[in-house]
Amino acid sequence: MQPPFPDDPQLLDRLGSDDPQAFEGIYRRYWKRLYDFANVKTRDADTAEEIVQELFVTIWEKRHSLQVSNLQSYLFTSVRNRIIDHYKDKAFAALDSVDPLSEPDYPLFLDELEQAMQQAVGQLPEKTRKIFVLSRFEGNTVRQIASLLGMPERTVEYHITQALRTLKTLLKEFIVLVLMLLTAGKF
User: Fold this and answer.
1) In this structure, is residue 147 part of a structural domain?
2) Local structure of residue 173 (DSSP, 8 states)
3) Are residues 51 and 115 in the same domain?
4) What would the DSSP string read from start to end of 33-52?
5) Are 75 and 21 part of one and the same domain?
6) Which residues form the RNA polymerase sigma-70 region domain (predicted)?
7) Half-sphere exposure in the Cβ direction for 135 (13 Å, CA)
8) Of 54, 80, 96, which residue is a domain's last?
9) First and final C-alpha spacing in the chain
10) What is the DSSP code string of 101-167?
11) d(CA 110, CA 140)
12) Does residue 22 sit within a domain?
């Protein structure tokens, strides 16, 4: 006789053996929590429901080949990844529908972006700023910068990484617009 509430590994084993009750058990155990998680992240009930439903369809379709050691972790990570994919698809769809060069504000945007970039680079610590400028604006390699400044290559890489992280945060409002320019090949 099966225990009334099998644990996740038992449910996964039974699922792999085509047991629809095991699938139902997983569904009942996790659907609401996954939906709530997706709903908080997407702020859209329909999108959240669609993401979770698609995940469960995939689980059923791949039940024979599913290799999962921690079901809860797998499910929440899968939902998170599907949310990310959803927003990537949405962003690229928006990019495809816009031609930045035909927009009358394009030159204004470039001026704004350049000012924001200069201001953001100016906020970097002096050494990080110097290394970033040598790398990204002057086109020097990590090895060249390390030799020029007399420091290890790993230190140069660290400063470039720190600069990129900081700039990403400071310029986040421009990210979608920069992506549009990059896809248009004009940046």
Assistant:
1) yes
2) G
3) no
4) HHHHHHHHHHS-HHHHHHHH
5) yes
6) 26-91
7) 22
8) 96
9) 66
10) GGSTTHHHHHHHHHHHHHHHHHTS-HHHHHHHIIIIIT---HHHHHHHHT--HHHHHHHHHHHHHHH
11) 24
12) yes
**pTM exceeds cut of 0.70:** no
Q: Which amino acid is at 101?
A: L
Please tell me the total count of domains within the chain: 2
Distance CA 38, CA 173 (A): 24
Q: pLDDT tens, 9-25?
A: 888 888 888 888 988 98
* Statement to judge: residues 106 and 73 lie in one domain: no
* Helix 71-96, helix 45-61: angle, nearest 10: 120
> Would you state the structure tokens that stand for residue 12, as one six-digit string?
């996964």
**pLDDT at residue 137, rounded to an integer:** 85
Question: In angstroms, what CA-CA distances link 116 with 100, 104, 111, 171?
Answer: 19, 20, 9, 7
Q: Residue 162's CB: how many other CB atoms inside 10 A?
A: 16
